[in-house]
Amino acid sequence: MIHSPPQSQLSSDLSDRLRRLAEAEDARLIADRRSFHANPELGWQEIETTAAIVKNLSRSGYEIVAGPAFLGDVERRGLSKDPIPGEGDTGCIAIYDTGRPGPTVCMRVDIDALPIKEATGNHAPAAQGFASRKPGVMHSCGHDGHAAIGLAVARIVKPLLKGGRGKLKLLFQPAEEGGRGGRAVADAGWMDDVDLFFAIHLGLGVPSDSAAFAVHGILANARYDVRLKGRAAHAGKSPEAGRNALLAACQISLGLHTLAQSSRPGMRLNVGLLNAGTAVNIVPEEATLTFEMRAQETADLQALEARCKDFVEATARAHGVEVSLVPGGGADGYANPEEIAEWAQGVNTATGAFGTVLPDMFFGASEDAATLASRVVARGGRGGIFVLGADLADDHHTPNFDFDEKALQKSALLCAGLIASAMDVDHVED
Amino acid sequence: MIHSPPQSQLSSDLSDRLRRLAEAEDARLIADRRSFHANPELGWQEIETTAAIVKNLSRSGYEIVAGPAFLGDVERRGLSKDPIPGEGDTGCIAIYDTGRPGPTVCMRVDIDALPIKEATGNHAPAAQGFASRKPGVMHSCGHDGHAAIGLAVARIVKPLLKGGRGKLKLLFQPAEEGGRGGRAVADAGWMDDVDLFFAIHLGLGVPSDSAAFAVHGILANARYDVRLKGRAAHAGKSPEAGRNALLAACQISLGLHTLAQSSRPGMRLNVGLLNAGTAVNIVPEEATLTFEMRAQETADLQALEARCKDFVEATARAHGVEVSLVPGGGADGYANPEEIAEWAQGVNTATGAFGTVLPDMFFGASEDAATLASRVVARGGRGGIFVLGADLADDHHTPNFDFDEKALQKSALLCAGLIASAMDVDHVED
Amino acid sequence: MIHSPPQSQLSSDLSDRLRRLAEAEDARLIADRRSFHANPELGWQEIETTAAIVKNLSRSGYEIVAGPAFLGDVERRGLSKDPIPGEGDTGCIAIYDTGRPGPTVCMRVDIDALPIKEATGNHAPAAQGFASRKPGVMHSCGHDGHAAIGLAVARIVKPLLKGGRGKLKLLFQPAEEGGRGGRAVADAGWMDDVDLFFAIHLGLGVPSDSAAFAVHGILANARYDVRLKGRAAHAGKSPEAGRNALLAACQISLGLHTLAQSSRPGMRLNVGLLNAGTAVNIVPEEATLTFEMRAQETADLQALEARCKDFVEATARAHGVEVSLVPGGGADGYANPEEIAEWAQGVNTATGAFGTVLPDMFFGASEDAATLASRVVARGGRGGIFVLGADLADDHHTPNFDFDEKALQKSALLCAGLIASAMDVDHVED
Amino acid sequence: MIHSPPQSQLSSDLSDRLRRLAEAEDARLIADRRSFHANPELGWQEIETTAAIVKNLSRSGYEIVAGPAFLGDVERRGLSKDPIPGEGDTGCIAIYDTGRPGPTVCMRVDIDALPIKEATGNHAPAAQGFASRKPGVMHSCGHDGHAAIGLAVARIVKPLLKGGRGKLKLLFQPAEEGGRGGRAVADAGWMDDVDLFFAIHLGLGVPSDSAAFAVHGILANARYDVRLKGRAAHAGKSPEAGRNALLAACQISLGLHTLAQSSRPGMRLNVGLLNAGTAVNIVPEEATLTFEMRAQETADLQALEARCKDFVEATARAHGVEVSLVPGGGADGYANPEEIAEWAQGVNTATGAFGTVLPDMFFGASEDAATLASRVVARGGRGGIFVLGADLADDHHTPNFDFDEKALQKSALLCAGLIASAMDVDHVED
């Protein structure tokens, strides 16, 4: 792997052509995004979503790998207890090899939704008729937009690629939320030949027509499923005979939250799920809870992780309750290298995609793409995670989340420009 | 309602006949009990159980009221959020009117199971092939035996009743656990003409071949469903924007349990169910929990209830979380009147059902029959709740619960004797 | 030790004489009680109280053992961290030996006060000028009355004893609260020759002019001092470096209280003291807490004790905090033997002390006298703890506690009668 | 107030002279520091410390204001419940007026210690014989060094000042810990004529021979004393009659700590003190706790403050306990203006005090000097808070804290240079 950093020069002819192509995608981008929005699926369950993507790309000239072939038999973390048919075999990758020497470039978008009940009333998706049709599941992070952008970029760059160098991989990643899919994709080997990786995220506080390329502070994270098993007892006849898994779970949850406070950057802890008990008159025998931790630096995450594991185990023991901690997903921390930020900024200037570029941005959250980027970097490649501005109706992961759809065309233009520049489309005669 | 207390005299001829009839029922009692055990259904969902009872009694000469006609449109507390078809229209009553003046006598058995996963291995029902076929649902309180006894009693007394006085009601009550069905039955008016009510419970620490008639300390109880609604937020990006319903639920659960300690008799509190959160990386917006309180005396229960409601509401407010408390089921407290204990003891002596009678017994738990008995007493009738001995493999409401099936025949004999004596079967020529 | 149970016969002459003597004590009883009330001292610190008792008895003809000679070098539990001069060498015993063969009889009264701030306003001791002069310390359990009764009984029986048999020990016990002094007294050997022991307690819900002799349900108890040592840290600069002993103490306290609920009789748990931290901007390094447990039966107490110790240790470990548990005081459980209740009831009838005798009484709390009585019983002697009625202004251990002083004379009369009958005063010529 | 920013030019002659003067102070600096270290006093109780400072400066030519005259009758927050004689009238100010027009310059040092038990063994102050002689009180933040530096600076600059312009105020501030003294000093008017204010702090992670002038992220903070009043009850006889202030305090403490987590910069919360209960067998009636909050931005602090107040009040109500929240001390947030950082850096270069200057430093804690600096800035003046490097044996606020005493001379040199430059000493002939 001896490729030099990507160059951001694009001829003005190519830039013009990209702009025209992106403009032509506008209506379809919005339609696709709304279609994804109306049909959200949780991580590892993006069955219809994947089918729609595969169908969309079917006659596009890309090689498509999907279904069980995509991730093979690598471990998938965080599947449901009773997986639905097809669960875990979601997501896909579209590949185009120019046949000429050059870098392998991978653009990643993610496609999963969240277990949130979408707002109604004035909430735009509801008012305009594309709200979630699946109760309790919602695209409230913008992955519907990411998937639509991925498809548009596939269409925009396809005609240009025959004049480029190297190989393109368009990755439609499943199960980003909770940091589960990235590791499976990397373990399946899809990053092993990638020289240049990039991923995008809409919104995150960056306003419409702005973008952040010098992104740092993408947090490392880790999550655990905790299972507690006490002893049931008749709550009226013999409460003292029980070992109460519900109360153990409550003390664990409260105590873990008191451990989160830190002077170290990006430290976070959340107990996101807790379920305990079976009937009102039985001392609860079983409880489960799931928590995640985040930190900017891996060493800090590991220190917190060690404390939390000790805390959970000892508190369970205090209540006379058996405990198991099962690691769930997790993502590495990441910060874009300077050269990658400069490259993206150059392409943005050349294409005119976003009017304003933030000098730098502290991400302050986790992003499963960091696991993919880290894997590429570990092998000597380069990686970037870019935040593309979009005004929001409400915070990510809330029922009223929505984003300014004008961001879609701009994003598709930028991404197409990044690919064109990295694959040297400009310098090769048609 | 001017009937005098029931008399326990039974002629020795009648006692002999009852004993022969009960002995003849033994194999069927055990078979019925095992069939119910293998097919447990939760409260308000005893659909197959009710169908089996109705079918069993169908050509018996009793008038059977079941289905929507049984409870009409009275309120059913504690139905599922998404009730299954038929839910709430379970249980039934079998009626026989002698046509002669005399008391209306009601014997109640209950028929529902519990959300417990039955043990395997050496656990007798598993070893002998009649363990629950429904994962996570189990007859771990003995209601399978109660239902079988109810059917046997129906068969035993039927031929005798034409020589008796008054009216017999054999009540197969749904949803006893959680104290939900009793109130619905009473509200539907089935107790309005009852002069003498009795219910039975197997086990409860009373050994095989013993029985307790002078039962007191049946606890009053009340339960609440608590719903908490906070505000979701991205746990990594903006935890401070959330209002954490999970942590509120944890502090409520722990705090409620600290309120239970009391010098007053029979005070108990249990948070039996807690569910919170939707995803590991979202500050939990919603949580639900269910708790129950018990006390020997109604005034104590009300005092605890008032404290608990205040506690829940204020703690939710502390976390910035909205709260609603929905009352679930509940049962009255009860103690058998002396005359009723004496009557039952006399019948026991006459029939020779149980070899030993406990001088008295502190029940120390709730029993939905108390609501029915209280309703009868409030109208001037009489009521008793009897505990019939059966050695247990493990405590009620635990996965290894099982009881000595020898108790079935003894119980059926006693109950048939109680009915025969109350309805004066002995004194009327055939 | 072959003495038969005490006989309750008293000649009517002797009864009359006792009544006259008790009546003559009335004013002094009230004055003494008020003096003790105004000068309360905590357990092991009853220095002025002991001095007043010793002075009072100094020319009475009793042998007085007080100061370091009283308890010698036996272990005193629950001394202050920084004991004041004289602490632990409090209490005393007054002895009279008739020189004639007969039983050794011990009457115990207790003399310590509580760390409660006495009420003001209409509260009788305040309104009548004998409220506590020591801020934050108060006789709110009635031991002021007990001490006064002890002195009156000493005076009443003294002239009679020369005509009796055996030996009398009047024990003024220190540090009853928290169950600390009883064990020290027993360990010092003062019970080793006692054939008949009795102690009294005023109030406890028994109304004026009533008394309870058939007392059962005196609870066993145990207490622990918990010391937690974590790690200090600057709360602003590096909270993650701390190991927070305060939060550990909070989770321990809440969790312990959730363990108290039980179907077993008399189970109680209380965390009575908690102190943690040194400054608002330091992660608290140290915390201490003290808790007690009670149960009617020793086996239950031991089971709860084992759970609580495990709970404390594991929860401390969860917080990364070192912990030590130091056993504090404790008392045995007790129930008066029937023959002792009958004896006291007979003496009460003979003397006419209390108009009404309760058929039985569940004590429902601990009483350090149980440790003394148990020690006597273990050696083959007999013991009783009697509750002497007194209407109360408010509960024991509250700032408004006060009792009906009419109980003093009645109590002194009864106690003198008990001694007279046990020591056979009646049968010996003057 | 029209003074231009301070200029950092110092003639090389003056710089040389300052260096020589500072070198000459070295032994005395160390001796003074050790003397203060051995005799630590808590905030508002720096009685001996103030006396030593006043004595030290008594014949120095400065006007000294100390005792009640220093702070007059302005409110002192955070005095002890039972203040010792002289408490609150500590600290002093030394003033020298050149008589020539020019700025009023104020240098602040702080003088209070912390409630920490100093380490023994190898800990240098212990090994070298200057450990705290006051059990449980320790200079574990470096204020002993600050006070010594203040005295040295007074001596160094005194001979130079007659050639300067304006007025010098050397402030020896009491009660810095907890943010109490700064506000009192400001309220007493001592900042009202100050044009240029600066304060110093040793250590804080800056290594020996380094200094940070471009300091930002000095956190705003606020603290509250919480008093809870429930209802006492006999823990054995009637626990249900109590309203448990201890358990309320525990739930408040745990809950507050769960509110601290935030994406906003510098957010912190600490419950530093908790005291509850009076005796092991009484349901605790009273509890007190003290907590502080910090944030980089005042709006964030106010938002957290509002949540915390609501939380405390509602949780107390949940337990049926009365509550009062009394605001304690607090400090403003602060960041040094660029011009002030440049001035100090220039003086450092000229004097050669510290070899390395950090490009910038995030302070990440509170500093009471921020309240003084903010007051000066609000009136149009300028202020700076500088961190002067010193290697540490352990973290601030821990028992093993100690600092490299080589920092003392360097600090005195820098501070003297700052004063000399600000008061234009260089431009006036001796």
TrEMBL record, chains A, B, C, D:
Family annotation (InterPro entries): Amidohydrolase, Bact_exopeptidase_dim_dom, Peptidase_M20, Peptidase_M20/M20A_hydrolases, Peptidase_M20_dimer
Pfam families associated with the record: M20_dimer, Peptidase_M20
Swiss-Prot/TrEMBL cofactor(s): Mn(2+)
Binding site for Mn(2+) 2: 141, 143, 177, 201
UniProt KW keywords: Hydrolase, Manganese, Metal-binding
Cofactor note: The Mn(2+) ion enhances activity.
Extent of the signal sequence: none
Coiled-coil features, chain-numbered ranges: none
Example GO BP: folic acid catabolic process
Gene Ontology terms for molecular function: dipeptidase activity; metal ion binding; para-aminobenzoyl-glutamate hydrolase activity
Gene Ontology terms: cellular component: cytoplasm
UniProt-annotated binding residues for Mn(2+) 1: 397
Limits of the Peptidase M20 dimerisation domain: 222-317
Transmembrane segments: none
Top-level taxon in the UniProt lineage: Bacteria
Keyword Hydrolase: yes
PANTHER family for the chain: PEPTIDASE M20, PEPTIDASE M20 DIMERISATION DOMAIN-CONTAINING PROTEIN
Protein name (database record): Amidohydrolase
Organism: Sulfitobacter sediminilitoris
Organism lineage: Bacteria, Pseudomonadati, Pseudomonadota, Alphaproteobacteria, Rhodobacterales
